[in-house]
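Q: Sequence in, structure out?
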Amino acid sequence: MKNKIYDVIVVGGGLAGLTCALHLSKQGIDVLLIEKDTFPHHKVCGEYVSNEVLPYLNSLGIDPLAEGAVPISKLKISNYNHKEIESTLPLGGFGMSRYYFDNLLFKKVNETCDVVFKTVEAIEFISEKFTVTAQDKTEYKTKYVVSAHGKRSNIDKKLNRDFIEKKSTWLAVKKHYNYDFPANTVALHTFKGGYCGLSKTETGAVNACYLTTYSAFKKYNHIEDFQKNNMSENPFLNKFFSEAAPLFDSPLTIGQISFQPKKPVEHHIFMIGDSAGLIHPLCGNGMAMAIHSAKLFSELFLKQYETKNINRTILEKEYEKQWNNKFSKRIKTGRYIQRLLMNETTASVGFSLLNKFPSMLNLIIKKTHGNPI
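A: Exactly. Output:
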């Protein structure tokens, strides 16, 4: 393995990295996947997936619904001014924990390509070849690197990516609960300084994942204090946190989440998933976008690979072009919606308008989602 020159090395074993490795290796591409943590493991995530990626997953031999994923067809939104809206999701989606979903993909990937569990220390590009160095100083060689290292990583620092130097104001918290919650619904409840998503997973547990600003959070002593004295001003969240029984000993957290623009290709590395760009969690489409980006790169790579003469420059330009065409408008819409919901006045006006014209909500949802792929 150490002396091989792989066709592609995928760095990061989240949804994007696993899907990309599976897609390419199923088509005969010699792939190495490098992931820092063994499977299965939990991740901070909303755990709702839009059905837009269901046909693609099926084509790779992955059937989430057959594996127990919870079909979701309804959306409920509320704010801390006691206003609420309910709607049918245009495409619908499914709920599945990252603990199960990632492991499901990993088991497929492990059948078709090499996998090592190590932390990547450096990625260097010299003379049309990459050297990927792990923390134990093991070096792996390849012609192409796809990086799916997530929202924020030391890799970003080593590559001097623009966004990594800009201070982020966001913190995310996730925990599973036992609670009587409608299985067909994903809920989004806003509070002062953030918003919380609720949906069921394959185990029957309810995943509660919320995003808040540091400025809102720092006024409180700890997470439970914040939930009790800030988030619970929203009556729906008050009922949830008062009655729900936690299934984790302690919540999972991730800090310094950046929604700054990123480049899909940097230093000849193809970025997929959150490494390429992050949509606000309130749009409920980050997992689907990660999977879709893996499909986008894989198909472009395979198209050129079949010619036996891959043009790196053309491949990079085409991937960047298609990535922007597919996702940049969604991300911009997500930022706009986030600004509206985080402002008490505009959020109140927005809820009033949506109550009068409920069809507007479906139009907004479609702006942050794609067609089935």
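The CA atoms of residues 48 and 95 lie 5 Å apart.
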